[in-house]
Amino acid sequence: MGTGTAGTDDRDGHERPVVIVGASLGGAKAAEALREAGYRGGIVLIGDEHELPYERPPLSKGYLLGKTPREKIYVHPTQWYAEHEVTLRLGTAVTVIDPAAHTVTLADDGRITYAKLLLTTGSAPRRLPVPGADQDGVLYLRRVEESDRIRAALKPGARVAVIGAGWIGLETAAAARTAGAEVTVLEAAELPLLRVLGREVAQVFADLHRDHGVDLRFNARVEELTGQGGKVTGVRLGDGSTVAADTVIIGIGITPVTALAEAAGLEIDNGVKTDEHLRTSDPDVYAAGDVANAFHPLFGRHIRVEHWANALNQPQTAARALLGLNGPETVYDRVPYFYTDQYDLGMEYTGYVEPDGYDRVVFRGDPATREFIAFWLSEGRVLAGMNVNVWDVVDPIRDLVRSKRLVDADRLANPAIPLGDI
C-alpha cells in the first residue's frame, strides 16, 4: 500500500481506498497530499458539482470581475487526476455514511467501502427567510455557476441590491460598482464587518464603499423581496421604504454542511468536531476546511475558520494523520489567515479574535489613508494583525501572534521600528 497505513482489504480481498467526500479545494489538495506523502493505494474523490475541483476566492474577486479566466480557478487540470490515479466522481452526491460498515452510499445507490474517510464538504450560504426570496434575480454566491449569473447581471446602470455587508457582500458590491452598476448595500448591523473587525476598523470599509458611490444602509431590516411576474424588482425594508433592484445578491453568511456527518453519528458542534489532527469522533473519519471545527493548540480551544487558507492547508495535516505518519505536520496549528481585494484596497488578516475578545486596537499608520496595519490586543498581547495596502509583513505579524508575548503598544504603532524588532 506504500507509505502509511490507510487501511485493510475488504471482504472480497480488494484494497479499500481512501474516500474523500467533497470535490473542493480541500478535497483536491488532500488527494495531492496523500500522493506526496507516498501513499500508493486507491483514492476516490466525490463531489456533487460537475466542475473540476476549484478555488472559491476568485468567484467574488478576479473571476467575477472577468480578470481571471475559468481555467485558472481549477486546483488541477483534468489530466492530473488520471496521472495520479485519483478516481474523480463528479456530479455525484453521497447520501449516507456508515462508519460501522466503512461505506458511503451514493445517490445512484452505489456503495464504496473505505479504509479512511475525509470530509471536505465545506459550507453553504444561509438562505434569506423572507417572502419573495425565491424569485428570478435573487442570487447567492458559492459556486462557479452562481458567479457566472452574478457577472452577467453586473452591467452599467443595473440596479443591484446587496443584502449583507460581510466579505462576500462587500466584494460583490465592489465588483458591481467596478462594472458600472448602481449598488445599494443593506446591513442589519451599524457598520460592515462589525463582528469580524470591530468598530474601529469596520469604519474603514464603510468609508471605502461610500467613496466609490455605494449607497450603504445600516440597521436595515429586510421584510420582503418585491417582484413582478416572478422577477425581483426590489427590497422592502422594515421602515416601509423600498429599494428598487434588478438583481438582489444575498450574502448573510454560511453554515457548515454537516448533515451527512450528523446522520452518521459524528460529534457536531458548529461544524464537525475534530482534534488537532483533524480526526473526528470516529477514528477512521477526518474533516478539513470550512466544515471542520478543529482543536487549535495555539488557542487551546476548537475554532472553525471559513477561509481559503484552511481549505488549502488543513488537508495536508489530515492526509498525513490518516496515513498514521508522525511529525509536526500531523498537527494543525497554523495561525488563521485570510485576505480581500476591494477596488484599490488589498488586505491580509492574520490571527484570530472573537467578537469583543480584545481590549485595544493599535494602528501603525493612518487608517484614513488606507495604508496601515491594525493590531488587535488583549492584555498587551497581539491576537491578530491586518495589513491594508502594506505588504510583506504577514510573517512578522504571525510571529507576534504566535509568541503571545507582551508588547509595547507605542513601539507597535511606530512605523520607524521594524515589526521584526518588536
Major sheet: arrangement of strands? 3-2-1-7-19
**Name of the CATH class of the largest domain:** Alpha Beta
Which superfamily, in CATH terms, is the homologous superfamily of the largest domain?
Answer: FAD/NAD(P)-binding domain
Shape: globular
Average of per-residue pLDDT values = 95
CATH fold-type name of the largest domain: FAD/NAD(P)-binding domain
**Helices and strands: which structural class?**
alpha/beta
Q: How would you describe this structure to a colleague?
A:
- With 422 residues, the protein is of the alpha/beta class.
- It folds into three domains: 18-124 and 255-330, 3-Layer(bba) Sandwich (FAD/NAD(P)-binding domain), CATH 3.50.50.60; 138-252, 3-Layer(bba) Sandwich (FAD/NAD(P)-binding domain), CATH 3.50.50; 344-421, 2-Layer Sandwich (Enolase-like, domain 1).
- It is built from nine helices and 26 strands.
- The chain has helices at 25-36, 78-83, 144-153, 167-178, 194-211, 259-263, 308-322, 394-403, 409-413, and strands at 18-21, 43-46, 86-89, 94-98, 103-106, 111-113, 116-119, 123-125, 138-140, 159-163, 182-186, 215-217, 222-228, 231-237, 242-244, 247-250, 254-256, 272-274, 285-287, 292-296, 301-303, 337-342, 345-351, 360-364, 372-378, 381-388.
- α1 (25-36) links the parallel β1 (18-21) and β2 (43-46).
- 43% of the residues are buried.
